[in-house]
Amino acid sequence: MVACLIMSCSMSNTTTVAISNDSGAEIKSLKVDVSDHEQTIKNMLNGKRAKFIFQGIHDAHYVLNGEFSDGTKIHGEIGYVTDGMDFNDSFEIHEGGKVEFKSGPH
Predict the structure, then answer these.
(1) For the segment 22-47, what is each residue's pLDDT rounded down to a tens digit?
(2) In 10 A of CB 43, how many CB atoms?
(3) Do 33 and 70 touch, CB atoms closer than 8 A?
(4) Dihedral of the alpha carbons of 66, 76, 84, 16, in degrees to the nearest 10
(5) CA atoms of 34 and 36, how far apart (whole Å)
(6) The CATH number of 12-103 is which of 2.40.110.10, 2.60.40.2890, 2.160.20.10, 3.40.50.970?
(7) Cβ partners under 8 Å of residue 68, min gap 6
(8) For 40-100, what is the HEC assignment?
(9) C-beta neighbour count of 8 within 10 angstroms
(10) pTM, full prediction
């Protein structure tokens, strides 16, 4: 029983998030929030990709808020992360601010 508790407390609990801009336009700003952590990317050109790494997450979902250079909004509340597990997820941002979520192997 003690061995299980020690293993549970020592897990890395890392969430890796890949962002792809497949919208045909520049993303002026995009903020990704998860589990009380946030990271922002600015001036992301079409076709570019970025990666965020979050540590120490707890039960939560992703919240994306952003804006294209023409003022069109990007918003999504999607996916799920939980304490004690690693996550490898991705978001593709499409024309009009549509957000596509993909969850990879953990």
Answers:
(1) 999 999 999 999 999 999 999 999 99
(2) 10
(3) no
(4) -50
(5) 6
(6) 2.60.40.2890
(7) 23, 25, 26, 27, 28, 74, 97
(8) EEEEECCCCEEEEEEECCCCEEEEEEEEECCCCEEEEEEEEECCCCCEEEEEEEEHHHCEE
(9) 10
(10) 0.83
Residue that has been written with the tokens 């990271």 in this structure: 39
Q: Where are the domains of the chain?
A: 12-103
Q: Go through the chain and tell me how many residues it has.
A: 106
What is the identity of the amino acid at 68?
F
Give me the amino acid identity at 88: N
Instruction: Please name the amino acid found at residue 38.
Output: E
